[in-house]
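quick one, 273 residues, struct below
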Amino acid sequence: MRLDAHQHFWRPERGDYGWLTPEIDRLYRDFLPEDLAPILAQNGIDGTILVQAAPTAAETAFMLSLAERHAFIKGVVGWVDFESADVEAEIAQLAVQPKVVGVRPMIQDIPDPDWMLKPEPARAFNALIATGLTFDALTLPRHLPNLLQLLQRHPELRTVIDHASKPQIRSGEFDLWARRMADLATGTNAYCKLSGLITEAAPDWRPADLKPYVDHLLATFGPERLIWGSDWPVCLLAGDYRQWLETTERLLEGVSDTRGIFGLNASRAYNIQ
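---
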């Protein structure tokens, strides 16, 4: 089964996508399963992981309602308030939903870079371990030292780093990001998503611009811990679905077996049977 391990759906009129404004005109419209299904069929993708895009329980319920009606959605990564007094119960309620596979706090939007290490979210991380749900780490390069510390505190926490922590490809920054990602690869069991890279590159990006970053992820996480995702429809800001898929396949030409990257690793990371 070939999986797209990172995609979104939204309906702006729902009103809880704080980042999604009319100024982002390419994305400011409904993106729903009927829009993605033919694209998946055209590109030989069998299923997807649907990931939260708003920090509300209402959006998680919206995603689950879509997953109930569309079999190609194999898993949902939802949201809970990690500082809620009832966070353990809220995570337990999500965990009994058949298609919920993980939870994602929007760390990149939290002003305090040390938030993940504070006592309050620790209860949520422990609850994820107890329920077997996966932690999606939506981080930026500046968060990586803290993410390493967090995952070493909680070695049983099954973790997927979204978008390779968004390296600053546009400005050519590489060395510090590369060292910190290598530390995470060797010091933890985290998986890393091969996704979201084209929107971090310059508007006129070429595959060669992405190659050093992909090569480094292959050298550190290896094909066994990399997971492909489209980041559709956000990817439309920099290309289209097929363009990113073909670019990834081209950048992985030296990998003898890519079945893990394009599905098996996601099944393991999200415990999808």
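The beta strands are 3-7, 47-51, 73-78, 100-103, 134-137, 159-161, 191-194, 226-228.
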